[in-house]
Amino acid sequence: MRKVFLLVSIVLIVFSFVTAQDTLEFEGVGEGAHANGALMAAKKDVIEKGIGMVLLSQTEIENFQVKRDLILTKMVGSVKGYQIISQSTTSGGLIKVKIKAVVSKSMLRDDLAAFQILIKSMNKPKVMVVISENNGENSDPGNQAAENAVMSFLKESYGFELVDKQGVLSVKNSKQKMAALAGNDVEAASIATQYGAEVLIAGIAICKRVEDVSQNAVGMVSVQADVTLKAISCANGRIIASSSERAVKGHLSPQTAGTQAIAMAAEKTVGKFLDVLVKDWQNQVNNGMPITVEIRNVNTFRLKNALVQTLKGVSGVSSVYERSWDAKSGLLGLDVQYKGNPNSFAAKVDGYKMKSGGGSFAVTGMNGQAVSLAAQAM
Prior knowledge:
alpha+beta
C-alpha cells in the first residue's frame, strides 16, 4: 500500500511539473446579460492575457488586434480549468464574473499559429446578402433592416468584403431572381456570382405584433421578428450553414419596433455562421477549394492533355477533372481543387509555362470562384 501511495505521489509530482511547464494562470473579469455570457467574457479576458505572453513580434501583435474578436472566440478551448472568485450584478443589470483560470501555453501557440496561417492563406470571401423582409405587411424591396444588420456585423467586426447595396437592390427588384433565391440554391449561387460574390447569405425576415404582452407601457407595441438565413457557396450551390433566430422589441411605432426586432434577430442568426464559415475555410486550406476553370484556344487533343498535366503540377493544386472540351470552339472546362483562394490560384497560373509544347497560361477573367484562362503560344 505504501509503495502504491509513493508511486501515485511521484506520478502526481511529475504531472504537476509537466503541467506547470505548459500552463499559465491569470485572473479574468467578464460581464454579460446572463451568467454564461459573463463567464465566456471572463474566459476571453484570460485568453487575451495569455496571448500577450506568447506573441513575439510587433506584426503578430498588430495582426491579433485586427482579428481580436474572432481569435478570442475560437481560442476559449485553451482554458483548461477555472475557479469563480466572485459574481455580482452591475448597476446596469449585467452579471459580472471574476475567475482564476489555467491556460495551456502550447494550445495558445498552436491555435494562434493556425489562425495566422489561415488568415494568410485565405482571403475572406466576398459576400452578397439578400434577405426578403416583411415588416408588418410591408414587403417593399427597400426594406433592409436585416441586410444592414448582417452586413454591419460582417464588415465592422470581421472586415468582410461585401457586394454593394445597389447590386443587392437590383436582385430584390427582380421577382424572377428572388424566386430563384428562395427555391434553387444552385441558381441562387449563379446569380450571386454575377455580382462577384463567393458566398451568398439569403433568407427571409418576418415580423408580427405580439398582442398578449401585459408588461408593455401604455401605448407601446410589441413586435416579434423571425429571421431564417442560409449561407451558400457560389462555387457549387452548396449550403455551408443555415440558422434561425427570434427577437421581440417594443416601441410606440409598430414599424420601428419591427425594424429593431428584425435587426436584432438577423445579427443573432448570422453570428451563428461564423464558426461554420471558419471551419469551412480551414477545410479549404487543408483539402482545397473547388475552382471552376475555363481555358480558351484549346484546339487540339495534344494541347488539351498538355494543359491538364501542367495544371496538375501547379503548387497547391490537389486535383484536376475534365468537365468538357469542344475542339471546334477551343473551350476546355475543368474542375480544379486548389489549396487556397481563386485570387492566389490566378496569380500563380498567370504566365505559368506549360510542361511540354511551349506556351503558357494567361488569366483573362475572374468571377467568384470561376477563373477564365487562355492558352498562349510561345
